[in-house]
Amino acid sequence: MDELDSALVRLLQEDGRRSNRDLARELGIAPSTCLERVRSLRARGVLLGFRTEVDLPSLGRGLQAVIAVRVRPPSRRVIEEFRAFVEAMPEVLSVFVLTGGDDFLIHVAVRDTEHLHSVVLDELTKRTELADVRTSVVYSHMSRKVVAPA
């Protein structure tokens, strides 16, 4: 990636709905050059897609939590099956597969504590491979919107 690619990635992370013409104008390049660069970034897998950020409380999901999970036995099959199970849950925002004491961190957004209780006790604990589960309510959450290349 050169400086132009990095600038395009930054601008698109700030606002993925910017028009090609607007991007080209801001970068001082021809619209055709800009379009080709964006296409190249997508083809190379640098740009994976464009998303809309939503306000979780407006969707009835005002409570977030992080659930730490250990599964047993710690085999590839068990890890992959459990991961597929939690990724299919509508409450799940993200899943981290880890090394160390926990096998998973699961970030969820739910209506309220009753809904969170149900997710943990009625959904997760029905899995036979679940060895341990700990839940932490999220008071505040920051997610970096613009990531610069290393």
Automatic annotation (TrEMBL):
Residues covered by the HTH asnC-type domain: 1-62
UniProtKB keywords: DNA-binding, Transcription, Transcription regulation
A Pfam family recorded for this sequence: HTH_AsnC-type
SMART domains, A to Z: HTH_ASNC (SM00344)
Superkingdom to which the source organism belongs: Bacteria
Keyword Transcription regulation attributed: yes
Keyword Cytoplasm assigned: no
PANTHER family the record matches: LEUCINE-RESPONSIVE REGULATORY PROTEIN, POSSIBLE TRANSCRIPTIONAL REGULATORY PROTEIN (PROBABLY LRP_ASNC-FAMILY)
Protein name: Lrp/AsnC family transcriptional regulator
Top-level taxonomy: Bacteria, Bacillati, Actinomycetota, Actinomycetes, Kitasatosporales
